[in-house]
Amino acid sequence: MDFHVGPEHFREPGAPLGGAQCTVAVGGHSVRFSGLSPELHEAVLSRYALFLSEIPPLHTVTLCAGAPAYLAPAPDGYLRLEETQRGEGRILLSTGMAGFWPSGGRDGLLRLSQPGNARFALMFLENYLRWVIADLALERGGFVLHCAGLVRGGKAYLFFGPSGAGKTTVAGLSGDHILLSDDLVLLTRGADGWRASTTPFWGALAQELKDLGTYPLAGLYRLIQAPQHALRPVSGALAVGMVAACCPFVSDPAQRHDKLLPLVEECSRSVGVQELRFKKDPGFWDLIA
Amino acid sequence: MYEDGRYKRNPDVSWRVIEGQAVLVHNREGEIEVLNEVGTYLWEHADEPLEQLVGNISRDYGVAPEEARRDALEFYESMVASGALVAAET
């Protein structure tokens, strides 16, 4: 049985879990976690070691204890995440968390079902972070892409596609390249063009393999596993559709995609989108760079 | 069966025309549809009378009106099935 909540659930959340805080920055988008217990603070410092920052936060979230459970687990084992938009703000619910981001506000609240279980709490804290970073990026003319990001010759190459397309495989075949992520990369628009930044979000590869950085974007490649390596340009609406389909949001109010589509179009035109058919050897790089 | 005036574009579908082709994003499901040129024309003019659109397609693309009508109906029914078109409020 789901325990659905409204904004009233966040009006008197009780005391924060503790007095510790730290700030995590993703491509210049900084989020401060406050009210951390000593155990959770230590877990956050370890998990986000590469991404800790002292820059003033764009968003601050305070952590408090929540209900014993929120959404019931999904029968297929996938993590459930649901967002609802209310007049007072947006609510993100999952099995072990309820997050609230007031409309127009910079401060959010995250209530956790098992705040004493640092591993469990960290998983939901990360889902809250994904939610906030995706929206902060969109507000500033950027977006998050579900892809493997690799750097060669000082430029970022992004390999995208749905789960199972081969993002982690491509990252694994590119051991001599700098890894931004094998799951999610942040794209932002700079004065000199689009740029790709490392994100801290969970992928199949270890966090330690990532390199923290922001690089000029060289190309977008839609992955298709095939017997031979081949590259085919994709343009126009199909290119935009391919990329937009891999931009994750928890749930997508129309205004987000109304903002997203023009950005994806601009980015796709800027660097080009290509369909990369690849087999499991690093020879595909010969076609790219 | 699709009928004039019974449906409208779903406000929960974001869309954008790029080089003559519409990209539709079903906001809740995150699903994407890319329409061809004729589909884009029908999508953009979904609130106009079917016979008028059929006449324009028949003229502009050199196809028989019956064929244009069949294709247009098939397109709109697929849009209703996907949820891109929803019942208009009465």
What's the layout of helices and strands?
The complex is a heterodimer of chains A (289) and B (90).
Chain A: E1 20-26, E2 29-36, H1 38-47, E3 59-65, E4 81-86, E5 89-94, E6 97-102, E7 107-112, H2 118-139, E8 143-152, E9 155-160, H3 167-172, E10 178-181, E11 184-190, E12 193-197, E13 214-225, E14 230-234, H4 236-244, H5 254-271, E15 273-278, H6 284-288
Parallel strand pairs in A: 2-3, 3-7, 9-13, 13-15
Antiparallel strand pairs in A: 1-2, 4-5, 5-6, 6-7, 8-9, 8-10, 8-11, 11-12, 12-13, 14-15
Helix pairs in contact in A: 1-2, 4-5
Chain B: E1 7-9, E2 13-18, E3 21-26, E4 31-34, H1 37-44, H2 50-61, H3 65-82, E5 85-87
Antiparallel strand pairs in B: 1-5, 2-3, 3-4
Helix pairs in contact in B: 2-3
Major beta sheet, strand line-up of chain A: 1-2-3-7-6-5-4
CATH topology of the largest domain in chain A, anyone? Phosphoenolpyruvate Carboxykinase, domain 3
Please report which band the strand proportion of chain B falls in: under 5%, 5-15%, 15-25%, 25-35%, 35-45% or over 45%. Answer: 15-25%
Q: How many H/I helices of chain A? A: 6
The helix content of chain A is 10-25%
Based on secondary structure, the structural category of chain A is alpha+beta
Q: Sketch the major β-sheet of chain B.
A: 3 strands, antiparallel
Low-confidence stretches of chain A at least 5 residues in length (pLDDT < 50)? none
Question: What characteristic shape of chain B results from the CA principal axes?
Answer: globular
Overall pLDDT metric of chain A: 92
Largest sheet of chain A: 7 strands, mixed
Q: What general form of chain A does the structure show?
A: globular
Q: Largest interface, with Cβ-Cβ < 8 Å?
A: A-B, 22 and 22 residues
CATH class of chain B: Mainly Alpha
* Main CATH class of the largest domain in chain A: Alpha Beta
Number of helices of chain B: 3
